[in-house]
Amino acid sequence: MVVGGGVAGVQAALDLTELGYYVYLVEKSAAVGGAMAQLDKTFPTNDCSL
Amino acid sequence: MRPRYIDADKCTACGLCTKYCPRHLVDQYNEGLAITRPIHIDYPQAVPATYFIDPEACLYLKHGVCQICVCTCQSKAIDFSQKPEEKELSVGAVIVAPGFGRIPDETLAKYSYGQHADVVTSLEFERLLCASGPFEGELKCLSDRRHPKRIAFIQCVGSRDLGCDNGYCSSVCCMYAIKEAMVAKEHDPSVDITIYYMDMRTQGKGFDAAQKKAQAMGIKFVRAKVADVMPWEKNLKLTFSTMDGSHGFEPYDMVVLSVGLDAPADARNLARIAGFELNNYDFCKTETFAPLLTTKPGVFVAGAFQGPKDIPESVTQSSAAAGLVSGLVMKDRGKALVHKSYPEEKKIEDEEVRIGVFVCHCGINIGSVVDVPSVEKYTDGMEGVVYHAQSLYSCSQDAQEVIKEKIREHKLNRIVVAACSPRTHEPLFQETLKDAGLNRCLFEMVNIRDHCSWVHANEPEAATRKSMDLVRMGIAKARHIQPLPEQTVPVTDKALVLGAGVAGLTAALTLAEQGFHTYVIEKEDKVGGHLQHLAYTLQGEKVSTVLSDLADKVKKNKKIEVFTNSELTAVSGFVGNFSSVVANRKGKSTSEMTIDHGVIIVATGGREHRPELVLGNQIKYSDAIVTQRELEQRLAGKGKVKAPKSVVMVQCAGSRGDDLNYCSKVCCSHAVKNALKIKELDPASQVVVLYRDMRTYGYAEDAYREAREKGVVFIPYSLDNKPVIKGSGKKMTVTFHDPILREEVSMNPELIALSVGIVPEGTEELSKLLKIPVNEDKFYLEAHVKLRPVELPVSGVYVCGLAHSPKPVDEIIVQAQAAAAKASIPLVKGCVSVEPTVSSVDKEECIGCGLCESLCPYQAIRIVKDENGKRKAETITASCKGCGICASHCPVFAISMGGFTDEQITAQITAFGETKEA
Amino acid sequence: MSKNDFNPRILGFLCNWCCYAAADSAGVSRYQYPPNLRTIRVMCTGRLDAAFVLRGFAEGADGIFTGG
Known about the structure:
A: 50 residues; two-stranded parallel sheet; 4 strands; flat; B: alpha/beta; Alpha-Beta Plaits; Rossmann fold; five-stranded parallel beta sheet
């Protein structure tokens, strides 16, 4: 079980799935993404965060 | 589980309900700067792409009236009968990653936050800059919608501040302030921006370079404490005091508060439920050498809740936590897995070509330069094009649904997306094609962002014309693309780790604990690497005990084989099937062995840099002039250790432009650690630290504060006023400028300790051997700085430790665990898929001349005899890299490259020649 | 025609692994260069057949660029 669906939680859940486990991802809000989804761009590539 | 009041299977995310919902609601996603409705979705790319109803704001759920949404929803997705549910889950391990909380408004009040609309937090500013933000990316003051001409950033708001109980440094604010300032400058080059700071903590990889770039763009950096911000007619008045005690004030249109990362609001609750302890700042309590273990076995932590940190470190911790969990619950691996299924692939061979073109705005990234509507219109009527459209973000979840829908609706059998780079986004769209029942190779991507809008930002017309040309060429190729079969090759489920320092050993252990046989090769005659030179940590743990424990665990693990005095001399193969030659020295003789393995972890480490020239001073190392590492060994020596009576420590000795161009991240903490040790041994010792920016980020800030309290004197120097070191041995003088006294000061210290940087060990040779890139500072360059921090661009090769960049031991351990976790993914899967871009031979046409076999640089094509005894070429799919040398040299055009056939390339060239005017 | 009016049409063949990647990085770093190039991505410049170059000229290219 992963508690929190921000970038950390989502990455952990994805990696665990790839490693062959069934994962429950628990997130308080209506969508995953957390604070990173609010960022406009990220350094250094200034890629869109989404 | 709280209900959404919307059936996720039925909701198409069309947005009609939000349009008709009569009630207004403050938009939390936009930091309260915009208005939404109780029934809404945070942003179009949200996953899951299902709307939801805020029960606290909904008129029906609160007052029993309305239900307008129910009649507007075409797909009947709204379901007010949903109730909160409780579920009991039985799990083998828990990873807590609740992130961070926000700094309370009281802390921000002294800067007029809440009283004046143009004082905003950095996160609010982020939304203001964003194309999907409240002003669609146009930078405006919230008070009267004017364009701000002068903007100030205030650093350390809610961090490094005992006044709000946050003594730590939030680690990310300096860098994000620089980023936001640079983006604001991109929006409006004439805007005047000043960043008020105490220390610029840009210790991350490549961050110092970004600060230099910001300075070159005209962004000003002022070392000053901001006393307050007050409304001043239409503007804001910012009062500050500098190091020398003088005060000043400046008017600004907008003030951005670089707010720190607080502990999550419900940290205590979560800790109580899960049964683990918190530290004194309400973040999760962990140890230096076990950074991801909470005090409760089976519960792991990752991300900002472990301590304030940036995205790459968070992502690394997550992968590492996944690796640790994988070792813990190994017996359940592969159970309960659900495999994704795709609809059966549609046969399109007999169909006419039906191309769908999607042109992306990428927010403002493309749309602000290239005239996207014209590019879209341009494709109208082109041969084979039966559908064309634009999208704001073609990579978003909702856009994928649109593509799938259009494939069905218009019976599309080729898709062209004009957006960003196929190198990053092709897999995403190919997945969408598979979901829609198309072979993933029926896809062509046109790069109108990286190769167009971004590089021709000042020539919108030319950029639009170029986009049109590229799209026309892409469509020409698309007419000729054909479905290609998927191929997989088996994996050798063993790993090779290069280097047996703390990174290599930790990685090996994490792999072995997941059940994979691991070879570790080490150049030196014993394991331990750079860490052997350290005695104790900032938190006081003894390093040698921990290191010997680790070495012991590795030694006892039957799945790990360590080879010392060994070096890698050759590597062949590819992910899943590497074959390496290792030279092993025994005395004067050298023997060679070959190891087969599926993955490689590079943990080759780094070493102390010993500059001859420090800040313009010629250095002769002696008993009196030492590095911090040597000082540490001396202070930790056996028997009674005497502390020096007076010490001058010089930070950034040989770093940050002096000799090395980068910041080594650990030297500031190292100096503080040694300074504290000296004060512990002899409180009367005089310790002066000359620094540029004290970069004791995270909890190391506590130690920095403690050192100041214990009387260690910290004095900043600037590059135009460097400290001067003269003499040697017992007659040394250090002269420096004291900004508080405002005069030159000379000292005759007993000892000078230089805080020198870290350089990577032998990366240039290995980068040639493994064909992996290094950056300008000779550290390995990861696949993606933010999101793939431990993977290298060559698949199956991973990096951790000092070879990646300088970093403290806790970060090295996490990175090693993360690299091991990532490396075990192909080993767990047991096979890797080969890209369909490999060569294939038309046996009918082949004349068996053997030219291809002799030319192939990868030995991936060979001549075999067919059933009639005739010589024919044959591709060894697993080794083929798809370079196409065979195809371009075949005298009878018998070899074809998947996705890059003669026909397709020729079509592109022909399309280049057609100049259809828009 | 003066030197300044010359506005060549250049056709480029870019290797996916290096030159195409470099062109991506140029974009990421916002380097500005003249908009005269039209590119074709190949998995390696080894894929280039001399015929491609000749055809490019025949189609009106003023220059052919290969990056690999």
